[in-house]
C-alpha cells in the first residue's frame, strides 16, 4: 500500500507484514496529519491531502482504515470491526446447517408469540417473518467487551489480533503509541503483525529505534522527506 501526503512526491510504501515507520519531526505538521487522519477515518471528512492507495489500483481507501491514537481508548466496537464480526458469525452459523435450522425455528417461535399478541388488537397488520442473522445480531446489540483489569498491552495485542482475524486487509495506522510499551512488547507486537502480513503504518513524532527491521521515512524539521 502507498501512503501519500500532498506536497511530497515520494509515496510511503507499507504493508504485507513489513514494519514501516513515518517520523514527522515538525510538531505542527505531525498534529495536522493526525487530525486529518482522525477526521477522514472517524468523521468521514473528504479531502485528498492525504491518501492510502491499494497496490493494484488508484482507489483511495484511507476512510476504511483503522486509526489508533491512544492505546488506553481502543474502540473495540469500531464500525469496520463490528460489521466484520456480524458477517463472520452469520457465515459460521449459515455454514452449519443444523444450527442455522435451529435458529430459523427459534425465529418462527418468536413470530408466533408476537402474532398471538397482535391478533388481540382489532387492526390489520403485517410484518417480516424472516429476520436475517446480521439483523438479529444488531437487534441484540452484540458488542465486544474487555476486562477492565486486563494489562494494557494484553488488551492492545488482543485488539490487533481481532483486526487481523476479522479485517485482515484493512490498513492500520498506529500513532505515537509505542512509548507505552517495552522493547520486548514492541518486538512481540511486530512479530505477530509480520506473521499475519498486516498492513500497518507507525506514525511517530520522534524516531523509535525499538521497531525491529524497520523501513523508516522521516519528514524533518525543515519539512523535507529523507
What's this, in brief?
The protein is α/β, with parallel strands linked by helices. 40% of the residues lie in helices and 15% in strands. The strands form 2 sheets. The chain has a 5-stranded parallel beta sheet with strand order 5-6-7-3-8. The chain has a 3-stranded antiparallel beta sheet with strand order 2-1-4, with helices on one face.
Description:
Pfam families: Cas_Csn2 (PF09711). This is Type II-A CRISPR-associated protein Csn2. InterPro entries: CRISPR-assoc_prot_Csn2-typ, Csn2_sf. This protein is of the alpha/beta class and 226 residues long. The protein contains 6 helices and 8 strands, in the order βββαββααααβαββ.
Structural key phrases:
226 residues; alpha/beta; 2 domains; 5-stranded parallel β-sheet; 3-stranded antiparallel β-sheet; 6 helices; 40% helix; Csn2_sf; CRISPR-assoc_prot_Csn2-typ; Type II-A CRISPR-associated protein Csn2
Order of helices and strands: EEEHEEHHHHEHEE
Gyration radius, in Å:
22 Å
Overall tally of structural domains: 2
**What characterizes the major β-sheet?**
5 strands, parallel
Helix content: 25-40%
CATH topology (level 3) name of the largest domain: Rossmann fold
Contiguous low-pLDDT stretches (5 residues minimum) are: none
Strand content: 15-25%
| N→C terminal distance | 19 Å
CATH class of the largest domain: Alpha Beta
Number of helices: 6
**Strand order of the biggest β-sheet:** 5-6-7-3-8
What class would the helix/strand composition place it in? alpha/beta
Please tell me the overall pLDDT. Answer: 92
The beta-strand count equals 8
> What is the level-2 CATH architecture name of the largest domain?
3-Layer(aba) Sandwich
Shape annotation? elongated
Protein name: Type II-A CRISPR-associated protein Csn2
InterPro entries: CRISPR-assoc_prot_Csn2-typ, Csn2_sf
Amino acid at each position: 500500500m502507498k501512503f501519500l501526503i500532498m506536497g511530497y512526491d515520494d509515496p510511503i510504501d507499507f504493508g504485507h507484514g513489513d514494519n514501516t515507520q513515518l517520523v514527522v519531526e515538525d510538531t505542527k505538521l505531525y498534529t495536522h496529519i493526525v487530525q486529518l487522519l482522525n477526521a477522514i477515518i472517524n468523521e468521514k471528512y473528504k479531502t485528498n491531502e492525504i491518501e492510502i492507495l491499494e497496490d493494484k489500483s488508484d482507489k483511495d481507501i484511507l476512510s476504511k482504515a483503522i486509526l489508533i491514537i491512544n492505546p488506553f481508548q481502543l474502540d473495540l466496537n469500531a464500525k469496520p470491526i463490528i460489521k466484520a464480526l456480524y458477517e463472520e458469525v452469520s457465515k459460521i452459523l449459515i455454514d452449519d446447517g443444523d444450527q442455522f435450522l435451529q435458529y430459523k425455528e427459534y425465529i418462527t417461535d418468536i413470530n408466533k408469540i408476537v402474532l398471538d399478541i397482535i391478533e388481540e388488537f382489532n387492526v390489520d397488520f403485517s410484518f417480516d417473518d424472516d429476520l436475517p442473522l446480521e439483523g438479529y445480531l444488531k437487534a441484540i446489540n452484540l458488542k465486544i467487551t474487555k476486562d477492565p483489569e486486563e494489562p494494557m498491552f494484553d488488551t492492545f495485542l488482543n485488539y490487533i489480533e481481532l483486526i487481523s482475524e476479522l479485517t485482515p486487509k484493512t490498513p492500520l495506522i498506529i500513532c505515537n503509541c509505542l512509548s507505552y510499551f517495552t522493547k520486548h512488547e514492541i518486538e512481540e507486537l511486530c512479530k505477530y503483525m509480520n506473521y499475519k502480513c498486516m498492513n500497518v503504518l507507525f506514525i511517530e513524532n520522534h524516531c523509535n529505534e525499538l521497531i525491529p527491521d524497520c523501513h523508516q521515512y522521516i519528514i524533518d524539521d525543515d519539512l523535507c522527506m529523507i
